């Protein structure tokens, strides 16, 4: 049995995976420090059989068995965190780490391949709109992690558009990143500024049905995402773009992105779809990733 773990800025999920099928799944809020993280892992696997191996999809970039932040504001203790060593010591089995969006990209690629479609995409971009904005690329049927694990970090490409509350420095240190416009964190920040009261991303989506200023924040984020897709499409020539994450999968977000993309002058625009694996794209993608 394989243990898959998905570590995001907001949630920590674990699943027992048997031949590509989730047979048990648990989820808790992401921990705030290393001690709480170790305790949360123990709680997640309580009563489960010892795994034969572990595959992790994690926010941050993975280099040499350690996890590093791109956006330093997402997880405070993630700076060179020895995740592989910690899990090996706890479970005494092989451990493989992947960036969360890269793992999900591979999961979505495999899901399409295994459906037996004659023309499954060889060049797929997965975008997660979640606590941050993550990205993963499959190019010529191969997952591209990059020499430092950084490939696909689209959230830190310039968005070209200022957020509704003005330009904000990203936790990566740069100004104008897509993540500051279109992540759940950024949507909550913009909504709270525009409406003058604390609002989270889900509340913004609910408000958008009746309040044009709320809808405008989502449309701006969708345009930023569409611009990022267009930029990558012109760089590597995509044949599929898959959207995931709780914000990406929230009702209305995919049509907003599709409309924005359709409005851009782009040769051979790639088809856009929601993650077939839904909220399990990271877990199942990590489980399917080559070891
Ligand atoms: P993680 O980033 O840990 O992988 P998620 O994909 O769930 O987790 O993304 C978390 C972000 O999504 C948070 O900013 C949260 O406020 C936002 N979010 C969660 N549920 C919803 C929802 N139903 N609609 C809109 N935004 C949501
Ligand atoms: C950030 C970055 C990416 C990650 C993306 C989505 C950190 C800690 N994370 O851009 O590595 O893929 O967020 O991650 O720098 P999530 O936390 O939203 O799931
Ligand atoms: Zn950034």
The fraction of residues assigned to DSSP E strands is 15-25%
**Which sequence of strands runs across the widest sheet?**
3-2-1-4-7
Q: According to CATH, what is the topology of the largest domain?
A: Nucleotidyltransferase, domain 5
Q: Average pLDDT across residues?
A: 96
Measured as a percent range, the helix fraction is 25-40%
Q: Can you name the CATH architecture of the largest domain?
A: 2-Layer Sandwich
Low-confidence stretches: none
Give the CATH level 1 class of the largest domain: Alpha Beta
Structural class: alpha/beta
How is the biggest beta sheet arranged?
5 strands, mixed
> Over the alpha carbons, how many angstroms does the gyration radius reach?
18 Å
- N- to C-terminal distance: 15 Å
The outline comes out as: globular
What do we call the CATH homologous superfamily of the largest domain? ATPase, nucleotide binding domain
Number of helical runs?
A: 10
How many structural units, i.e. domains?
A: 2
Written overview of the protein:
With 291 residues, the protein is α/β, with parallel strands linked by helices. It has two domains: 2-101 and 280-288, ATPase, nucleotide binding domain (Nucleotidyltransferase, domain 5); 119-275, Nucleotidyltransferase, domain 5 (2-Layer Sandwich), CATH 3.30.420. Helices cover 37% and strands 22% of the residues. It is built from ten helices and twelve strands. It has helices at 34-45, 83-91, 100-114, 179-182, 184-195, 201-208, 212-236, 245-248, 253-262, 281-288; strands at 2-7, 11-18, 21-29, 53-58, 61-63, 66-68, 95-99, 124-129, 133-139, 142-144, 240-244, 272-274. It has a five-stranded mixed sheet with strand order 3-2-1-4-7, sandwiched between helices. A hairpin with a 2-residue loop joins β9 (133-139) and β10. The structure holds adenosine-5'-diphosphate (ADP), 2-acetamido-2-deoxy-6-O-phosphono-alpha-D-mannopyranose (BMX) and zinc ion. 2-acetamido-2-deoxy-6-O-phosphono-alpha-D-mannopyranose binds next to α3 and β9.
């Amino acid at each position: 049995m394989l243990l898959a773990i998905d570590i995001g800025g907001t949630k920590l999920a674990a699943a027992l995976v048997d031949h590509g099928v989730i047979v048990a799944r648990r989820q808790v809020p992401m921990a705030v420090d290393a001690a709480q993280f170790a305790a949360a892992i123990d709680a997640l696997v309580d009563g489960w059989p010892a795994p034969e191996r572990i595959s992790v999809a994690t926010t941050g970039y993975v280099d040499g068995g350690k996890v590093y932040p791109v956006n330093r504001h997402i997880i405070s203790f993630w700076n060179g965190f020895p995740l592989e060593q910690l899990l090996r010591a706890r479970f005494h089995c092989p451990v493989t780490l992947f960036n969360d969006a890269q793992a999900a990209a591979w999961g979505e690629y495999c899901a399409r391949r295994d459906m037996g479609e004659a023309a499954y995409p060889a060049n797929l971009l997965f975008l997660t709109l979640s606590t941050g904005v993550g990205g993963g690329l499959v190019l010529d049927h191969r997952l591209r992690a990059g020499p430092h694990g950084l490939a696909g970090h689209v959230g830190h490409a310039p968005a070209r558009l200022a957020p509704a509350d003005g330009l904000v420095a990203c936790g990566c240190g740069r100004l104008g990143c897509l993540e500051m416009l279109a992540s759940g964190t950024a949507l909550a920040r913009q909504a709270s500024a525009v409406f003058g009261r604390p609002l989270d991303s889900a509340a913004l989506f609910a408000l958008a049905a009746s309040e044009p200023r709320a809808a405008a924040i989502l449309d701006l984020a969708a345009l930023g995402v569409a611009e990022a897709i267009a930029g990558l499409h012109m760089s590597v020539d995509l044949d599929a773009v898959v959207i995931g994450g709780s914000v990406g999968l929230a009702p209305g977000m995919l049509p907003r992105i599709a409309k924005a993309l359709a409005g851009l002058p782009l040769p051979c625009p790639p088809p856009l779809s929601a993650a077939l694996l839904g909220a399990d794209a990271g877990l199942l993608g990590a489980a399917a990733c080559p070891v």
